[in-house]
């Protein structure tokens, strides 16, 4: 049971933070250099929705898909707050990186990327820790549904559904 809770919490953290850790935050050496064909796409990518907006959509979607009850609202609120905090922390770093990108040295670039990666990891841990009590408060049917929802997002949908 504990392993199932850990697996679900890990999947939750990975799925929820994936949008906040966008390719726009990748260091220059991890991206193809802009060309006339890619510069427009690169600019479009940099202007996409910020993590705080994206996380609100995910919170609403998850609340609905997980069929959170009134009795689970305290655990849900803690989980949603962890999601928001993680998106804000990562989003702030991404915004700073984008604002300073033109003047960054290669060393600045790699340090900025490391800061974003660390914030992402820290947020994932906090989200997983906040999800565990919510998952524990779920009915068996809700847990099975949660395993399927997160398994689907992680590409394990068929495997989760087969259990």
Task: List the main descriptive attributes of the protein structure presented here.
0% strand; disordered C terminus; mainly alpha; 74% helix; 163 residues; elongated; 7 helices
Itemize the secondary structure elements and their pairings:
Elements: H1 2-18, H2 39-46, H3 51-66, H4 73-100, H5 106-137, H6 140-153, H7 157-162
Care to describe what's here?
- With 163 residues, this protein is mainly α.
- The protein has one domain (2-162).
- The chain has helices spanning 2-18, 39-46, 51-66, 73-100, 106-137, 140-153, 157-162.
- The protein starts with a helix and ends with a helix.
Concise account of the structure shown:
The chain is an all-alpha fold. Helix content is 74%, strand content 0%.
Biggest beta sheet summary: none
How many helices? 7
Overall mean pLDDT stands at 76
Q: List segments where confidence is low: pLDDT < 50 over at least 5 consecutive residues.
A: 4-46, 158-163
Integer tally of domains? 1
Percent of residues in beta strands: under 5%
Q: How far is the N terminus from the C terminus?
A: 15 Å
Shape: elongated
Q: What is the radius of gyration computed over CA atoms, rounded to a whole number of angstroms?
A: 18 Å
**What proportion of the residues is helical, as a percent range?**
over 70%
Category by helix and strand content: mainly alpha
From N to C, what is the helix and strand string? HHHHHHH
- Tally of strands: 0
């Amino acid at each position: 049971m504990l392993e199932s809770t850990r697996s679900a919490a890990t999947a939750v953290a990975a799925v929820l933070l994936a949008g906040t850790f966008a390719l726009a935050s990748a260091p220059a050496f991890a991206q193809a250099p802009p060309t006339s064909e890619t510069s427009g796409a690169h600019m479009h990518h940099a202007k996409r929705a910020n993590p705080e907006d994206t996380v609100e959509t995910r919170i609403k979607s998850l609340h609905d898909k997980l069929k959170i009850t009134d009795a689970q609202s305290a655990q849900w609120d803690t989980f949603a707050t962890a999601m928001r905090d993680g998106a804000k922390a990562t989003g702030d770093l991404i915004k700073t990186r984008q604002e300073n990108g033109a003047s960054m040295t290669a060393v600045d670039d790699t340090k900025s990327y490391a800061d974003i990666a660390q914030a992402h990891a820290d947020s994932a841990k906090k989200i997983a820790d906040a999800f565990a009590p919510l998952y524990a408060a779920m009915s068996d049917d809700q847990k099975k549904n949660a395993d399927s929802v997160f398994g689907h997002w992680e590409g394990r949908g068929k495997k989760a559904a087969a259990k």
